UniProtKB/TrEMBL annotation:
GO terms for cellular component: cytosol. GO terms for biological process: gluconeogenesis; glucose 6-phosphate metabolic process; glycolytic process. This is Glucose-6-phosphate isomerase. It holds the Pfam family PGI. PROSITE patterns: P_GLUCOSE_ISOMERASE_3. Pathway: Carbohydrate degradation; glycolysis; D-glyceraldehyde 3-phosphate and glycerone phosphate from D-glucose: step 2/4.
Length: 578
């Protein structure tokens, strides 16, 4: 089933001497050990000899998808005939970030419903989405491989009730489930009479699922060209199969990433997308972080950081540019190349070649995993966070409140929390002072060259808050000369959260939480969205602390916007003094 007429995306490398030599040597050993053939033969010994062979269903996802293209085409026809104005996808991590990229890249197709993605428990963000769509004319896609993830389940409970109210009847026909066979979500969908149930392949992990029904069902509903995406993905899959190693694009990219990280500690994979392809970064970071960030090793993806001159960066950066052919490359890349940073330039001939890019990055990540010596298909630290969160929501269900906690310092509307180890270290470094500037300065002074700073904000991901987080992260990058991540909780827990906890211990974290001006009830559950989000932040912090990470939590009491402004001002002052 090859694809006549289509051509491959263009991939070019500018690698420093040491990386280029390492890649050449690695290509020879890959050829000698026939590792590419063994990947396709699903041999787990290419990696750690663990359970990797059970997680390679993504290799055949493009072909499987094309074999079942009729199911997508029939579904698309049904959706169109249903007269929906909106499609709202409820899911997390791999189940939401693939669809989100597709939405951002392909937009709203005239004559089709508009696709929206909700991957938050923030009450303001949930309420905003409920107000944005026409609930009576929305098709809801509840998307969860396992079926047991907390967020899609409570979002389902909320939107089921909202749709029932808007329609004045059981809204089952307006709901679609995408889930793995025999999951609790399948049961829920059957009990509630969902209009459609699509099954995923249990041999594909969430982060590798975009070319399976988890990406293609929402794509079909929004009127996107599913066949074109899959044909392109298949073309790339074939290019990563039986070809000499030196012309295998996925192998080359994966080796460049793996060699740079293992030999030069050049492990901050910095995504530089053109405006049209900027959203791919959020999908790529979940793929890279969850796959590689574990047992103290891994690549740390850096998304949406504006490019700067070489002087802004440490030697730990690896730049990956993705753009459409015809779009000029970012002018800041040339000086970085000249300064000896590894730079990969990927050009898509058209937007449908995004299908190729998905597969290319998947294959490359699996290859980088071999070089790093890890199992790219497990996510031990995500599970740990889920367990910690569940303990807190269970406690809430039993007692009506979250277990009490005390800040170790309070400065006006900013309250500071940490585990005893972090709190002691910070108080000591602040010379006993407990004002915000001194504590923030103490936290920032823990940052060393080669580290990264993670701003982890458990607030609504609105454009205003994104702008705030971007402002703060760039200020930190320029002041500290390290990589920065600006993430929203709980979304990142299902993505980069794995690497922050399980990857290299080079992250310095500032978690931001806030009182919620308005909370939202969840029908059928004892807790609210605000309680869930608070429990998630605490569960996240507990695991960061258990993993010996340098972490500080700032809780904003009172009005959020004012608190964010004060925090930004205090960070600025702290930076000047550090
Ligand atoms: O699709 P679900 O089973 O709901 O999982 C959603 C997400 O949950 C976890 O965080 C996994 O680590 C992710 O890889 C996954 O995409």
């Amino acid at each position: 089933m090859s694809v006549p007429g289509n051509k491959l995306l263009s991939l070019s490398f500018a690698l420093p001497e040491q990386v280029a030599a390492g890649v050449t040597a690695a290509l020879q050993s890959w050829a000698r050990d026939k590792r590419v053939q063994r990947i396709w033969a699903r041999d787990p010994k290419v990696w750690t000899g663990g359970r990797e062979g059970e997680w390679l269903g993504w290799l055949s996802a493009p072909r499987d998808g094309l074999e079942h293209i009729k199911q997508y085409e029939d579904f698309a026809r049904d959706v169109k005939a249903g007269g929906y104005t909106d499609v709202l996808l409820l899911g997390m991590g791999g189940s939401s970030l693939g669809p989100e990229v597709l939405k951002e890249v392909f937009g709203h197709v005239p004559g089709w419903p508009e696709l929206h993605v909700l991957d938050s428990t923030d009450p303001e963000q949930v309420a905003e989405m409920a107000a944005k769509v026409d609930l009576a004319k929305t098709l809801f896609i509840v998307s969860s491989k396992s079926g047991s993830t907390l967020e899609p389940n409570i979002l389902f409970a909320y939107f089921w009730a909202a749709a029932e109210k808007a329609l004045g009847k059981a809204p089952g026909a307006h709901f679609v489930a995408v889930t793995d066979p025999n999951s609790s979500m399948e049961k829920t969908a059957k009990e509630h009479g969902f209009g459609h149930i699509f099954f995923g392949n249990p041999q594909i992990g969430g982060r590798y699922s975009v070319l399976s029904p988890f990406g293609m069902v929402p794509a079909a509903a929004a009127g996107y060209n599913v066949r074109g995406l899959l044909e392109n993905a298949l073309l790339m899959a074939e290019a990563c199969t039986n070809v000499p190693p030196e012309v295998n694009p996925g192998l080359e990219l994966g080796l460049a990433l793996g060699v740079a990280a293992t030999r030069l500690d050049c492990d901050k994979v910095t995504y530089v997308g053109s405006k049209k392809l900027a959203a791919v970064g959020a999908w790529l970071e979940q793929l890279i972080a969850e796959s590689t960030g574990k047992i103290g090793k891994g690549l740390v993806p850096i998304d949406a950081e504006a490019l700067s001159g070489p002087e802004a960066y440490g030697r730990d950066r690896f730049f990956v540019d993705l753009r459409l052919a015809g779009e000029a490359p970012n002018p800041k890349l040339k000086p970085l190349e000249a300064a000896g940073f590894p730079v990969v330039d990927i050009q898509l001939a058209d937007l449908l070649q995004l299908g190729q890019a998905f597969f290319l990055f998947e294959f490359a990540t699996a290859v980088a995993g071999v070089e790093l010596g890890i199992d790219p298909f497990d996510q031990p630290d995500v599970e740990f966070s889920k367990v910690e969160t569940r303990k807190l929501t269970t406690a809430y269900g039993e007692t009506g409140k979250l277990p009490p906690e005390e800040p170790f310092a309070v400065d006006g509307d900013l309250a500071f929390y940490a585990d005893p180890r972090n709190a002691e270290a910070l108080k000591k470094a602040a010379g006993g002072r407990t004002d915000a500037v001194s504590l923030l300065k103490a936290q920032l002074e823990r940052v060393k060259p080669g580290d990264y700073v993670g701003l982890l904000a458990y607030i609504a991901r609105t454009s205003g808050h994104i702008a705030w987080a971007q402002e703060v992260r760039h200020m930190l990058r320029d002041g500290l000369h390290v990589a920065t991540a600006a993430e929203f909780g709980p979304r990142f827990l299902h993505s980069t959260g794995q690497a922050y906890k399980g990857g290299p211990n080079t992250g310095v974290f500032l978690q931001v939480t806030s009182d919620k001006a308005k909370d939202l009830e969840i029908p059928g559950h004892p807790y609210t969205f605000g309680v869930v989000q608070a429990a998630q932040a605490r569960g996240d912090f507990d695991v960061l602390a258990a993993r010996d990470r340098r972490a500080l939590r700032v809780h904003i009491r009172g009005p959020l916007e004012e608190g964010l402004k004060k925090l930004e001002r205090d960070l600025k002052t702290a930076l000047k003094g550090s």
